[in-house]
Amino acid sequence: MNEMPRRLQVLQAIVEDYVSSREPVGSKALVERHQLGVSSATVRNDMAVLEEEGLIVAPHTSSGRIPTDKGYRLFVDSLSEVKPLSAAERRAVQALLDNADDVDEMMARTVRLLSQLTHQVAVLQYPHLDTATVRHLEFVALAPHRVLVVLILSNGKVDQRVLATEQDATDEQLLALKQVFLTHLDGLTPAAAPAVLAVVPTQVPEQDAGLARSLAHMLDQLIAAGREDRIIMAGTAYLARSTGDFPLTIGPILEALEEQVVLLRLLTEMEQDVRGLSVSIGSENSGSLADTSVVAASYGPGSVAKLGVVGPTRMDYPGTMAAVRAVARYLSRILSQ
């Protein structure tokens, strides 16, 4: 075995041991736990070279070494393939996502599942609905001066809000207005709907025009909300349990996740590699996320939106990458049906 592949093998062993134990790794432990085929002295020499190259570092006065961000990057880039999920994990993904009633429930289930599979914070960028079309509407009188407005899209997404009206609306009036709106909106994309909504109130009897304008405005709000960039997440408790992996408080990280702007920009800018994954490690991230790693994959129509996990740089990269890619692919398959 020539020197470079062996040093890479030593680096891989250090990463694996450190991720599993959180303890700095020494040459003796590497020789005992891994079939490296060389002496402790040779491994110590390899570790010295890896340290000179900035791939590992000695924390404080420890005799062992831990990977640097650069070391994790080389480790991730050297993974020739992403291992598949186990049969049990695949069944869990299928069982959970196949039984979701609508898109919102499926997205919520997806982040919970990904968090449970990886023991990290799972994040999901909501899919843009520009490729979906309006499939159905409902206007339901709930109480005096209250109408429930329901918008259903072709991808199964259901949005609803309660509209406060100036006058009572009868069931017959709402049914007639629903038919007018549906006639104009059925099959339209969210991008095309606003222009049509501006016209619909002019197509109804004058006594219904005020209510029609209010309904059109509410539908416009529902459609606009569906087109906004937003993130849902699960598993922030896992981050709280990993405080030992962060040099400072996790407060700024939690704030960045809650504010979403930094994370949305990062997810949008991350480019996928040939394995269908995006991995951003430690200092490659800016600001509050510079002590974390993000593993993400695109999913859904046009593969524009992303889902992934955020966690400490001391992460099980092979397992996390496998889970993220598998869940993204399965979610894409469901959304395309």
TrEMBL record:
Which Gene3D superfamilies does the annotation name?
3.30.450.40, Heat-inducible transcription repressor hrca homolog, domain 3, Winged helix-like DNA-binding domain superfamily/Winged helix DNA-binding domain
Q: Output the InterPro entries linked to this UniProt entry.
A: DeoR_HTH, GAF-like_dom_sf, HrcA, HrcA_C, WH-like_DNA-bd_sf, WH_DNA-bd_sf, WHTH_transcript_rep_HrcA_IDD
Biological process (GO) annotations held by this record are: negative regulation of DNA-templated transcription
Carries keyword Transferase? no
User: Which residues, by range, are in coiled-coil regions?
Assistant: none
Keywords (alphabetical) are: Repressor, Stress response, Transcription, Transcription regulation
Q: Which residues form the Heat-inducible transcription repressor HrcA C-terminal domain?
A: 104-321
Q: Where is the HTH deoR-type domain?
A: 18-57
* GO molecular function per UniProt: DNA binding; DNA-binding transcription factor activity
The record's section on Pfam families has: HrcA (PF01628), HTH_DeoR (PF08220)
Q: Which family does it belong to?
A: Belongs to the HrcA family.
State the function annotated in the UniProt record: Negative regulator of class I heat shock genes (grpE-dnaK-dnaJ and groELS operons). Prevents heat-shock induction of these operons.
UniProt-listed NCBIfam families? hrcA
Tell me the HAMAP family matching this sequence. Answer: HrcA (MF_00081)
> What's the protein name?
Heat-inducible transcription repressor HrcA
Species for this entry: Micrococcus terreus
* Species lineage: Bacteria, Bacillati, Actinomycetota, Actinomycetes, Micrococcales
